[in-house]
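[09:14] KT: can someone run the structure on this one? pasting the chain below
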Amino acid sequence: MEARIVTLPGDGIGTEVVAEGVKVLQAVADRYGHRFTFEEALIGGCAIEATGSPLPEETLAACQRADAVLLGAVGGPRWSDPAAPVRPEQGLLGLRQRMSLYANLRPVRVYPALVDSSPLRPDRLEGVDLLVVRELTGGIYFGPRQEATADDETAYDTMVYTAGEVRRIAHTAFRLAGQRRGKVTSVDKANVLATSRLWRRVVTEVAAGYPAVTLETMLVDAAAMHLIRRPADFDVIVTANMFGDILTDEGSMLAGSMGMLPSASLGEGHAGVFEPIHGSAPDIAGQGIANPLATILSAAMLLRHSLGLEKDAQAVEAAVERVLAQGYRTPDIAAPETPTVGTRQMGDLVAAAL
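[09:31] RB: done, structure tokens below
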């Protein structure tokens, strides 16, 4: 098949890990007879430096034309002032909103070879394979807000959800659960928040249309506890924007490192944005030691969800598992005194394993 893929390396280690994702996608194209065309564009801090905007219109237009987008990370010390009127993160939020990417899929899988990389006991990790479905374009990140000023020291951010926004993300979660183990855990804060009471009511209504899928509801504080206490009990977790952001960072510790968790941001069509959940990691940028596996696994999700190449996606995931089983590690997932490989070497190993 032919596909046009826009790459948005962004800032920090984003440029390094995206290069390895492209390397593996090209290896897939060579192995299975596809033709992928790659177009690079600016987002985040580097876009602010070049154009004054974290999401230039040229970048947005390229992404809207593409079959899929592979993104690295945004941000860094140069743009770290949270009160600045223009920030790298605005590019990421704007891209999701302008492309109507309301469903963020974040799988958390524990590879047998990496059990010792997690801070949890091995018996807690057995059988962990869960998927967080995070609502991405509503909630507190997009509601009305006010910044504190020198004259007014009050600030607020407002969490707003409509029934329609909750309904569409719930349908996504139940459809995916039907393809997995048939269980949805809806996470909210319905004992306190009005938006969560709406969330719980609508999710319960949607559940009635999926009799083969079991629904449980859970408060977000309890979910944070049970992700550590009994993570293997979860199948699909569906939750609001901010809750999903926090819980998946917690979930990364099950897998051993944030460098292992991919994500897909999807809307109504096939096109989506695929990215690792980690940040730009400016402390290690340019050293060639960043873990590219989350980006490579994001590329596998790109193959699956945007290009419909399920067997190719499985081949990439199997290649990652094979390389890990052979003992290769980047520093973030290596035991003390264990030899490690760099970013490029890990990408080379996965490409070769295909």
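[09:33] KT: thanks! The radius of gyration is 20 Å.
[09:34] RB: yep, looked fine to me
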